[in-house]
Every structure is written in C-alpha cells, then in structure tokens.
Task: structure prediction
Amino acid sequence: MTTDHKTYDAPAHVTAIAPYQAGKPIEELAREFGLDPARIVKLASNENPLGIPDSARQAMLKLVGGLGRYPDPNGFDLKSALSKRYNLPLEWITLGNGSNDILELVALALLDAGTSAVYAQHSFAVYRLATQARGARHIVVPARDYGHDLDAMLAAIEPDTRVVFIANPNNPTGTFQPAARIEAFLEQVHARHGNRVVVVLDEAYNEYLEPELRFDSTTWVKRFPNLVVSRTFSKAYGLAGLRVGFAAAQPGLTDILNRVRQPFNVNSLAQAAAIASLADTDFQERSYQVNKEGKAQLCQAFDALGLKYVPSFGNFVLVHVGDAPRINLELLKRGVIVRPVAGDGLPEFLRVSIGLPEENETFIAALKQILKS
Result:
C-alpha cells in the first residue's frame, strides 16, 4: 500500500526535497543484472579501497561485550585523541555521525525560513539538502573552472545569510583552493560580517592532498570565531560504514551545535575505531599512496582515450564521457559501479572513485570496450 506525501501536512520545503542518491550498493546491482557480487567493482562512493584498518578492527573487537551499554554521549576518549592531534581544547570539538551529520547540525542550528546559505554550483549535494530541509533560501554561486569562485561567493553574501559552505577539496569535481585563498576569504567574511555569517570548511578529502599542499586549517579556528572546520573518518581512515566525523570550532559555536546534536550520535564501536585509526599512521600513508598511484592510473587511461577530466585533489576523478547515462548503464551491465552526477549539474560527466589497481583496471577495460562499441 502506498500513500502520496501530499496527503500529509508536511511543510512545502520538505516535500520539495529530492532525496540524496547514494552510490548503488553492490547487492542491488547483483540482483538487477543477475551478477556475481564478488565480481562487481564499486567505484561510486569515494570509499577507501583498503577497507577498514586492522587497528580499528581490533579496537572494536575489544568492545563487543559492552555493547549493551549506551556509548559515551560526549565521546571523551575520542575528543581527547583529537584534542591532542590538533592541539585544541576538548570543548572546541563536536562529534558527528559522519561529517554529513556535522553539516546537518550547522544547518539545524543556524538556518530557518528567514535566512539563506551560500554554496557553490557543483559542490556537495548535502549543502543543498540541509538548506532545503530548514526552509532557508539557497544562494548558489556559479562555479569557476568546476570549483569555488571565492570572490563571487563573498559578494553573494546577503543580510539574511547565516552559513557559507566550502568543500575543499570539492566533491564531486575534485578541485582545490590553496591555503592563502581560503585564509583571505575567512578574513574578509569576518571583517565584513563578524560572527553573523558562519563559514563551514568541509575537508572530507584533506588527507589525500600532496604534502606540499597540506595545511592545518584547525589553527584558523583560534583566529576566526565564525569558522567550523569539518572532517571525516569515512575516507582516508577507512571507516565509512561506521559513520564518524568531527568539527572544530570555538566553544560558542560548539555549544550551539551540541544543543541540537543527538546525545548518542556516535556509537561505541565507531568511537573506538576512530581512536585507533587516528593513531594508525602506517594505514594513512598506505591510503595516500594507493590513492596517488590509482589516480595516475585512471588519468593516464583517460588521456589515452582522449577523455577530458577535471584534475582531482581527492580520491576520485570527474571525467567527461558525453552520453553519461548510456555509458553508466553499460558499465553497470559489466559489473562496474561509478557515480552519475547529472543531479549536480554535470549531465555529461561520471565521477569515478579511485580503487585498488585491479579494480581501476576492470573499470578501464570496461570503459574502453564501451567506447569502441
């Protein structure tokens, strides 16, 4: 039995939401096309192809016997580890059920029907969804070279603006803004608007940057009371299925976020795994190297095929294939899952996550076959 949502008295801004479309699960594709799940390659959700680190696995096994208890609602041990890593007080850290949760918390705390949020065209879909869910107004700034036009975003801030979302590196395009540009933007926003406009710097892919491009944005939190830096354990740390993220911000902001945060939003296993993976520098280095080599593997293949792509600073590559719906369907038939991005305003592109060498090669071979046909 089905019921039309129009029969319920839900707010119009909620019923207007197009739900987030996650990458197709392996099991779903196997059912659709009668494929062997073990032979399917998933390069759709920017997951770490190395999987979960053994250090995190062992940390979780030690806790299994205590799962009848609620998790620590304040995440003291995980916050302590993050505090030590980033040299921040515990009360400057907010934990989230993935960094997606952090973005939702910011929107829930700061946006309503009388406010607006600024974000870039072709940026993370959750900015649009979180803004829409609060009934706030969207100010979408046209992209520049598939990335953020920070000057235009600064100019787009209006009197009712409360939040500016910046993804760096950006998903789904993979573009990157260097430290000097971000810092200058933060200085200008705070000088013009004070704490009225909160800037969310979403750094889900930060660990994949080349060493010479890395910078510690958490130090800016000490200078800018209107800044929230968001990070995740879902990518380089290999914990996508556990959902752990965190935010760094001054205590005035963390107090507001914690007023709307669910009390047990990060479970016990996730907290333990995050502590272990944070300390596992060997795994982090392997994740970086596998990604670097896999990115080169994909880009070399795209060059050989004459396909244009956006140079990426994350763990995925956005490639222009033309008839993306057809090519995506043909890839699915061959057991390869990538990410169509028409919903992000890029109908002729596919976003391809970087996998293990053999996974990348399976995708490349399938793409070559499709393009020849």
Q: What stands out?
A: The chain is about 40% helix and 15% strand. The chain has a mean pLDDT of 94. The longest helix spans residues 281-305.
